[in-house]
């Protein structure tokens, strides 16, 4: 869990480059790296939940390695994106007294989102399976993380769909509060 929280902190730190840096390349590098840390934060959280609930069957372990392999591939796409524009097309938008980068997602970024949602859904399924086994007095331990993850997913989807008219990704703040 500590590693997942470290990834959360690094994700937010990298994203602050989008707000604080002056050069567009530095801003785009910060955004892209924040997506990498998001992948590994969710992966570490999935891995933590596997260990926490003590459910280490073959399917869960195989899924863990599939998630890790895709996270590595996604990292390559995200790290190279500021130079190639293969995953996202960045453009500037005014924010407060400066400007931030916003982005238009391309197909590899949609795959990134599906990947992140898959890790969240897999984690929630693990927690739901544990809820079936746990005494009722302990269920709040599992419902809190599930609700928090679903809330982050819903707000991020609404933000990506363009229904939240803000230039800065609001889910980063949610990850801080949820974490």
Description:
With 179 residues, the protein is mainly alpha-helical. It has six helices and two strands. The protein has helices at 2-20, 24-53, 58-84, 107-133, 140-160, 171-178, and strands at 88-95, 98-105. The chain has a two-stranded antiparallel sheet. α1 (2-20) packs antiparallel against α6, α3 (58-84) packs antiparallel against α4 (107-133) and α5 (140-160) packs antiparallel against α6. The protein is globular. The chain starts with a helix and ends with a helix. The mean pLDDT is 82.
Assign an overall shape.
globular
Q: Could you give the distance between the termini?
A: 9 Å
Oligomer: single chain
Strand order across the largest sheet: 1-2
- Spans of at least 5 consecutive residues whose pLDDT stays below 50 are none
Please, how many helices? Answer: 6
Estimated share of beta-strand residues: 5-15%
Order of helices and strands: HHHEEHHH
- Return the average pLDDT rounded to an integer: 82
